[in-house]
Prior knowledge:
Elements: H1 2-44, H2 52-85, E1 90-96, E2 107-113, E3 119-126, E4 131-139, E5 142-143, H3 149-158
Antiparallel strand pairs: 1-2, 2-3, 3-4, 4-5
Amino acid sequence: MQTLQDIAPYLAAAALGVAVVLAVVLALQWRALRRLRRAQTVILGSHDERDVVAHVQTLDSGVRNLREAVERLTDELADHGRHLDEALTNRAIVRYDAFRDAGGEQSASVALLDNCRSGLVVSTIAARDFARLYVKHLDHGVPDRELSPEEQRAVAEAVPRPLTTPPAVAQPGGPD
Length: 176
């Protein structure tokens, strides 16, 4: 028993030392935790009680929704592009004298075409005592009736670039 009394002060000093070391470690950990919470406040804002993981999950959900919206808008843009290719956005007017006695270039050919040279050509032939109107349909540059040189010029001026082909449309029940 005497030995226990002899080492008791040493054990107490060792326990006190361990307690002081643990207190210092606890203080350092507390300080690191406060620093981490301050950093989270910078990221999350002071109005929110969630942690970084919940914040990242919210951001991930937002990015996923944004990605889906971009894909949807890309598809819509492609649809609008196809519709625009089919719109009669290319036009040209060629004026000319159809007859020698009629001056002032009173006759005209108007081409209204899409990007694939499909559309129509309207020609008015004016003379002193009559006027005639002709309408011809084009499908990918191929007219339903023969075009006059003036009408051919109107088509060439309306779509001067090379003929584009329409995008392939998948047929229902066809191969994918």
